[in-house]
User: What shape does this take?
Amino acid sequence: MAGIKWSKKEWKYVLDRIKNGDHPSAIISDLNAKFKNKRTRVALEVRLSKLGISYQPIVEDTPIEDSVTQVREKRDAQFWRKRYSDAVKQLADEQEIIEQIAKHAEALPPAQPPKKVAVTKGISKEELVMLISDSHAGEVVHPKQLSGINEYNFDIACHRWQQYVNTTIDIAIGKMKGYYFSKLHALFLGDMVSGIIHEELLRAAPGNIMEWTVNYAHVLAQGIRELAQYFDEIEVVGIIGNHGRTEKKPSFKDKYVNYDYFLYLFVKAFLSLQKNVTCSVPMSFYASHEICGHQCLLLHGDNIKSYQGVPWYGINRAVDQFYALLNSSGNQIKYVFLGHFHTDGTLLKPYGRIFLNGSIKGTDEYSVGRMFTGSNPTQTLLSFHPKRHTFSFPIDLSGDYTFKHPYKYSSSNEADVLEEIRRQT
Assistant: This one.
């Protein structure tokens, strides 16, 4: 401290500590406490330097390499602890969603499955497949804006689904006399609800995403329940589309966070008492599914780039890459089912076929205004034999339908439950 001379006692104390190998940084606090001065470490080091008195530098207990390793290990431990914590929280959230939906969704009363029948000689025993996609429930298409080409709203979405169910029963049970379909595969390929990522669709649509999701799931479940009266076994599989995602920008992590996923969970809950129906809701955006011994790939198709129409070349290339990827893991894909493009069609491949499904919605303002095209609302009905694909019918769903017993919307509080789940997660 400037202006205060060093006393002999102070200086002797410092020199004794230096001889003992102490560093000035360790001496200064003891010095000030003992002699009641406010000297600084820098001042002490300057005085020692002027007098030519050296002292031992501070030496680390461990080499620098060891210190670096310790820091890295500490950071790695923190990183993995966070990853583990996040994984546990994510799994807990997923389980919470599933449990809450199962808890609050009131299951439909089970329908009576058909009686077992003996298949006589000459009857082909096969499995039936319903491709179901692109209903965009909640969207409104105004007929006046399309000069009467198409009209669409939530009621029409429900009617077209019921007509698809009725037509499937009529073909499988009433018309295909030379076939016996013991099993039905109801394959949902995504974009079942209109979603919240397109502002122009929300402006014209009554209701909200929660109501569309729960009510349409209730209607879909009633259709599956009706089909369960005619087939010994029904397998339901649902994959997500792009319209149901919760953010405008597409992501590849956590793609299952999607209103299609919620809808399928509600369908599963509504059908929980129907013993001859099983529901699979994968978290992946695609699914591998076996039909009559054939391995099939379910894919919505939104990640296949499209320019003004159906990208036939892009579909071929994407499916070939997927085929190679899955085959490398021992999954021998033979048939592929795609939604998204609102067009029914078939592409032949050396290993099998690619089936494109139409849409329940049909022509809308976007398809006409952007691409000067449109298509009737169609869904594809297929049959498979252990040795082959037998037939595929595009089921035209256009027209006005009246039903003696139309499917009903959900009357309970499932929409409120879904809103609460969405808010929490």
In short: The longest helix spans residues 64-104. DSSP finds eleven helices and eleven strands in the chain. The chain has two domains: 8-50, 105-424.
